[in-house]
Amino acid sequence: MTTVEAADAAARGTVVLIPAGALEQHGPAMALGTDLVRAEAVVAEVASSFPGRVVIGPSIPVGVSPHHLRFPGTVTLTTGTFAALVREYVTSLHRHGWTRFLVVTGHGGNNAALTTVAQDLLVSHPAVQFAWSPLTALAGDAVAALRPSAVHGHSGEAETAQMLHLAPHLVHTDRLEPGTTTPDQLDDLARVARDHAQPTLTLPYDRLSPNGVLGDPRRATADHGAAIVKAIVGRITAFLEDWPAP
Amino acid sequence: MTTVEAADAAARGTVVLIPAGALEQHGPAMALGTDLVRAEAVVAEVASSFPGRVVIGPSIPVGVSPHHLRFPGTVTLTTGTFAALVREYVTSLHRHGWTRFLVVTGHGGNNAALTTVAQDLLVSHPAVQFAWSPLTALAGDAVAALRPSAVHGHSGEAETAQMLHLAPHLVHTDRLEPGTTTPDQLDDLARVARDHAQPTLTLPYDRLSPNGVLGDPRRATADHGAAIVKAIVGRITAFLEDWPAP
Amino acid sequence: MTTVEAADAAARGTVVLIPAGALEQHGPAMALGTDLVRAEAVVAEVASSFPGRVVIGPSIPVGVSPHHLRFPGTVTLTTGTFAALVREYVTSLHRHGWTRFLVVTGHGGNNAALTTVAQDLLVSHPAVQFAWSPLTALAGDAVAALRPSAVHGHSGEAETAQMLHLAPHLVHTDRLEPGTTTPDQLDDLARVARDHAQPTLTLPYDRLSPNGVLGDPRRATADHGAAIVKAIVGRITAFLEDWPAP
Amino acid sequence: MTTVEAADAAARGTVVLIPAGALEQHGPAMALGTDLVRAEAVVAEVASSFPGRVVIGPSIPVGVSPHHLRFPGTVTLTTGTFAALVREYVTSLHRHGWTRFLVVTGHGGNNAALTTVAQDLLVSHPAVQFAWSPLTALAGDAVAALRPSAVHGHSGEAETAQMLHLAPHLVHTDRLEPGTTTPDQLDDLARVARDHAQPTLTLPYDRLSPNGVLGDPRRATADHGAAIVKAIVGRITAFLEDWPAP
Amino acid sequence: MTTVEAADAAARGTVVLIPAGALEQHGPAMALGTDLVRAEAVVAEVASSFPGRVVIGPSIPVGVSPHHLRFPGTVTLTTGTFAALVREYVTSLHRHGWTRFLVVTGHGGNNAALTTVAQDLLVSHPAVQFAWSPLTALAGDAVAALRPSAVHGHSGEAETAQMLHLAPHLVHTDRLEPGTTTPDQLDDLARVARDHAQPTLTLPYDRLSPNGVLGDPRRATADHGAAIVKAIVGRITAFLEDWPAP
Amino acid sequence: MTTVEAADAAARGTVVLIPAGALEQHGPAMALGTDLVRAEAVVAEVASSFPGRVVIGPSIPVGVSPHHLRFPGTVTLTTGTFAALVREYVTSLHRHGWTRFLVVTGHGGNNAALTTVAQDLLVSHPAVQFAWSPLTALAGDAVAALRPSAVHGHSGEAETAQMLHLAPHLVHTDRLEPGTTTPDQLDDLARVARDHAQPTLTLPYDRLSPNGVLGDPRRATADHGAAIVKAIVGRITAFLEDWPAP
């Protein structure tokens, strides 16, 4: 896209889709950049369903990952810097006329900072409509169909399945190995954090899993991944269909 | 509590409970400070169940309320200032030896900023364990027993019930009136925000309800409020029982 | 106060009174929250003298107390965070139409940061009139009548007297004990800080007094406290009488 | 001074004197930089009394002057930037071994921000001893001897006298003219600000005086200025005599 | 790369190469993301010459582009946010053991902010060695061989040539058109900015060229682009050869 | 200059010249404040050539000098604080009507932060034209005439020559001694930093020279200094002649 197409897209009131990821450990078998890969793939698929009605904005390759920082290769932004980055993406594009923004984040650690951006924009830029979306959380039924481990999540069944579908070359299938899969593998503190969704206690991931994995990624298949991605794309598509132009 | 008791409590490894509220519109019938009143009441009740094992820290009377700012009397902090405030409460107390902190927030608008605090503390103060908890979201069953309106939430059945139980003198019962109670009262944009929990779109409250209320607070009773509070206290108490001392 | 009364009060051009305190050591006998207790009591009394002409804004329970941080229980904000907090209280309320603000601070450590808020608002919000007031410093004659120790001040005669009058249940009278009362109890450095009001040298309080007290609080009486509070309220009331509506 | 002398001075435990001024209107007759001129002169005189025991640090030519910003030529720093500047001067020099710092400010608008620096350093750099001093406020008797106007202060009798003594070439004596000299020249709001030292209300100077002057500078003489400066130097010298090396 | 390879690479003392770009107008014919495309291509080529001695870190897709903000599609970060982002990339990776970092920026607007990062890291992280490099500026001779226009630069001969070589599918060759090519096309102000490299005057690009282009991109060829890229890679390779491991 | 002359100068559209320096080691023979001395001298000379067309703004005595911080006496600002300072100078003066600003910096360490100010002002204050200039870099031919050492720069031939011309009393000529003068005196890392202007690697100065000097200042003469200053003044004068009033 050049400035010519940008001028046109802004004038037409398109929605800006911004893929956000993280650069953080995904266990011994998956790439550090897994979250962005998934976010960009979903955004691309969504965009292809809305020709002329959405544009794809700049990616956010690094997110809020302090909980993974003890695993080599992880890069994290402070929440303040991440929020400033997103806000400046949005306010720059808003100058050109765009008013609707949807950040699609492959990394749940970004959720809170994205919410703070939404809150602060209400006061500083009331004409902006800022939405954000997770990935896996949109596909509850498809994930359940995987019959994941009792403890599952980061780099586990669902996330690995998505990668086997979207970017199998970024999965070292020979290295897939289970992480923490049952509550009894957790110590007392980690069990509190997992058992109680609320109150919420945030722990570094090395307290939750020695290899950084929650669940058993060996159970993932590309087919399950395709189903999960389809569910995600469906939910985001439905949202965009409903979102009225200002 | 004087510095003498504080020294003792810190040495014993107590958990610090910090009530957080908001100063924001709660419709025509309830006080601006409703959220802090509920948080402080819950904290007091929890504390009474754990004599000698918890202490009550300083309250946070103003929160993150940009979505209510078009209603008179609402005061909001930016998310950055709110987070700095919480962080400085925690790091001050951590100097005295406390390591476990639980912020109990009566206002859901604070949730994201509290999460950012938890994330940033993982790197800056790894010895701190920082947890936070909402109120009403802990009491799903008790709220459902109220049979709330199709659209319900802020200043609606559940919140009003809590106040009728905890601080009836702060409810002008003669002014209780329904706000938005059904989806058809919402315009297209507001309906998107309510229908899709995710993707998440944050709107100012005047787009959701002319009087700032979601639901019909006239259906609230003190008995329902007591049940909700009991459920909340039970959930927080269970969490504290499980939380191991470092 | 609900949003209904807030709308009315803002329209009438009322003055917003904001009580500010601190959470810091007050010696072995007085509560950590002493400064807010006094500020809120004075504000309430002032407000009762101006029915319909003032409103009470949100309290600031924690202030700038780095000099007390070596005493357990003390919580401090950095001066930047404290100033941001006050500024955001004020600018939020200014959106609703209020233009006159008076912060009444029970803690002298907040004075400088309050002044910086006043200064920065002159440029950023020229329509705001921002005033602040200390407590004890307004009651010189009434304090002198107490015949305080040669060295007196924090948690000493005057402050204890106010608490005996306003909130005797927050004073452990059996624990009242003198702190530093004469210059010869100070070391060379501390003496410089006390002898020279200007140049001004700020020291941590453990350099000034082992128990955090300056003066002999046993000499305080509730009657003296009543006289001090009366003088304070009188001075603030006189100020408000003179302050013209914009 | 080169790095050689700096190394030596730091090793000997000298006190660093930092002159601070402002660039702001001083009425039609005096230079914008008046405050720094006076501060540097006082610092030089003090330094000459303590050979080998003090060093003169870098000047701060611009201060906190938002209240003068409506008068052409005034430059102001926000309080946060001013405080950061002072803090970075101090922490840079502290790396070389200095521990005692005295900022001498010719401008009262800097007082609050200097206090916030002192407060924040207590926590971040506990080995630093940070003091600051005003000028004219140290010379109450000498100023009284001038029999200044009922309303006097900025660019008035005392400040002009100092300049006539220290830097007569920076005073356009032919342009000296009275500003506001009596309370009846003030409007209601300005009178509140002047009559009540506390509560403190900060106003822009154009509300206090059309020409930016408080008092009648025509009554100033160089002799009075010499007496004021002598008193100031005496007070600062006495402070330094008492200040023990760490 | 997974966390396994990252752990190994950090232990071996590899250099981290970070490609930085911009999202900004590149005239009617080239993609907004041109600068990142070129930076990533150069980094990939350099990395292939140093197997096992360098790693490629996360990209920076958006840079400091305020001068292009009047052209649709341009996104800019403030210099402070850009610097924070780079600093947090570096300090995160430094925790894992890396000490040498080279940011390769395809966008000259990032140069100053990169330098500020280098300066601040000298104090905050003295064990880090932080280097950065431009692209086109390294290839003076190869650019001269293009015989570019009298006025040339952004989106002109050299930049277009690189893209024709590296990513021809991102160049709309049918839209290539000259921008400002001779000084007489500039107005007085723009001529000052172009004629005087120093003193340096920064202007928005719409003052320099109506279509955002400096030079005549039609003269660019893929062969020239290959020569330019080869020169760039050569210079960076030589630098890396010389850079000793700590 | 008083506020009267300032009002007049602003109305006439004068250019504001701001001298910026540093407080940093300049070897055993030259004053810490050398850079400001040179900048102020150049600014004064330039101003004398443009009577009534320029004004001299407030000096910046301390700059960005982290690379010299291991040498006693050096004071540095972080790049963010330096930039805030410059920005607030400029925006204060812009309120009075000035639109053109030229910062003349005697210290190259300030260049990057000055550029970031220029960039950020493009968005925040589009009516401001902000330029900056180095000193010695403007006088390439005159410096070459000095036939400086193979390695030369900070506190070397050219800088010393300027000081011998402008402020010989601030040069201890008996202490002038060579620093690093040939590449073979550098270790491997330092050689990389010197040999490769780009990629750019910033090192602390103690890695480059034990006494902080690059070059042999004994070869400097006042005549060479005069020639260098003349060249600098000529370049800046030419720039100002060309700079059109808005």
From TrEMBL, chains A, B, C, D, E, F:
SUPFAM superfamilies: Creatininase. It holds the Pfam family Creatininase. This is Creatininase family protein. Keywords: Hydrolase, Metal-binding, Zinc. Belongs to the creatininase superfamily. InterPro entries: Creatininase-like_sf (IPR024087), Creatininase/forma_Hydrolase (IPR003785). It comes from Myceligenerans pegani. The keyword Zinc applies. It comes from the Bacteria. Its cofactor is Zn(2+).
